[in-house]
Amino acid sequence: EVQLLDSGGGSVQPGGSLRLSCAASGFTFSNYALTWVRQTPGRGLEWVSSISAGGGVSYFADSVKGRFTMSRDNSNNTFYLQMNSLRVEDTAIYFCAKWAGAAAAGTGYYFDYWGPGSLVTVS
Amino acid sequence: DIQLTQSPSSLSASVGDRVTITCRASPSMNRNLNWYQHKPGKAPKLLIYTASTLQSGVPSRFSGSGSATDFTLTINGLQPEDFATYYCQQSYSTPWTFGQGTKVEV
Asked: Predicted confidence band at B49 (pLDDT cuts at 50, 70, 90)?
């Protein structure tokens, strides 16, 4: 059974940093791209970032580019979202999700499994 | 960016009803359109991918159709566990985008 468990959410002041983690199990971790999606009351679901199966390529939404980075540890089945220079508008529930393909920008795929979400509050 | 507009934003329905949710894409795309169900406090769940393929384990009362600019999610015979918010999402081009959601209420 595929499971994703995100952690690391919390409260932080504007300009601060936070790192989210997502521990995965139930699939061959190194074969798939991984992603972060966030949910805000005003903007609904918003894709944040993706990292390729090998970890060499990552993409970010314009709203977080230059402030967020993404990494993965294929030996530990865990991936991360490092969030720096946080803004009030980054307040959201952050979901980690598995992408059904290996390429971070592979078209025709989908978010096939999701974690339960971590609340990040910037205030 | 591909913009997805769902309608309606919310709807009221009863158990046993047939429910139809529409997702309109701009500009036009192919069939790389996916549907998710989300309940508060839970992980979103993939229902349908590439417009009409049912994800494994999803009940057959869910179905999807459409291409280019107009897509539809249909629930035939709404069940109590189906009251949730539904989102469409495109994987035609990055950045991946979502519709604003449709809340299905009792």
From this structure: very high
